[in-house]
Prior knowledge:
The structure is a homodimer. Chain A has helices at residues 3-12, 18-26, 38-50, 74-83, 96-101, 109-131, 139-169; strands spanning 54-59, 67-72, 92-94. By secondary structure, the first copy, chain A, is mainly α. Chain A has a two-stranded antiparallel sheet with strand order 1-2.
Amino acid sequence: MQVTTLCLGALVFGEATGYEINKMFEDGPFSHFLDASYGSIYPALTRLTDEGLVTCKAEPQEKRPDKKVYSLTEKGRRSLGEALQQTLAPDKFRSEFLFAVLFAHLLPRSRVRTLVDQRLAAMKEKVEQMTDPDEDDTPGMDFARQYGLAVYTASIDFLENNRHLIEEIATEEEVHV
Amino acid sequence: MQVTTLCLGALVFGEATGYEINKMFEDGPFSHFLDASYGSIYPALTRLTDEGLVTCKAEPQEKRPDKKVYSLTEKGRRSLGEALQQTLAPDKFRSEFLFAVLFAHLLPRSRVRTLVDQRLAAMKEKVEQMTDPDEDDTPGMDFARQYGLAVYTASIDFLENNRHLIEEIATEEEVHV
DNA sequence: CCCTTCATATATAGGCCCGATATATCGTTC
DNA sequence: GAACGATATATCGGGCCTATATATGAAGGG
């Protein structure tokens, strides 16, 4: 699924600028399970406009670049619907943390501890972000939020209960350099 | 973290060909939390050879392309160690399934049910794959495997217990096309 | 009161990476 | 015997991320 399709999805929730769509991926409702950035969003919106899947009205602003507000067309809505009928890519999880863990026996114990602490902190922050529902969350967003909470909670529990396993196999602290 | 670094990591477990490294990402110990494919692995190995981080010995084969077996050099091992001291990228999760769920209210109920069923089946297959430890697993691999099990189990539980939430908001089955 | 930082807002260039494809052969299954 | 999958390397096209450029107002710290 390409960024163009993700942008169509973003616009289902109302008209938006490229800047606002980017925020949806950075902090907003998409941030927990999708990503896309300026380098793909702006070209995607141009392509979508060319194909008639979105419309663009430029709102002139003084001393700022024109704000380009995009809205979904009927054709765009249909196109999203079709994309959601296609086979979806399987969920994908990428973790450099687990990659590093594979080499725990080659790393100093302090480093392994730091890695676990950082991972735990990051996940706890995510949990805090996701704990309070937003008023205007759609039921789908609410489901995704709770799904995320369940997964992060399980991850935190596992890490806290099993971190000793990898910390034990790490290399002893060296007294001399 | 680039594919070159991931290849260095793969070679810590012993010498290997590009083909075998690819398998580590496709079915092997890396498959649950990393990905890389031929299009990046082969060029990476060439670059690593040029930089002296790995060595390559060609094993001639009859009626087959030469098998190129790569091994880590001392320089390569140090390079991996340094990479593991750098700040690691945060874990990333990408789910087209959750994207689709955001639009559950626009989809026919049968489609939503299919999506959930497929997701559950995929995760249960993962769990089965990960349940039995391999003899020659390193402790790090074992940890990663158990971590994965904990997360997938929690995901499955959540989905089974909450699927009704999104199935209820889906569009009623249409009797007429 | 100034300076830095952050937020708003669009856009592109460089480089990395995935997916598909090409080539060649053998073993297994239908 | 036909089709398919595994073994094995390699490249091309296109998509995407990171960093950067440009411009300004608001807010906060010193």
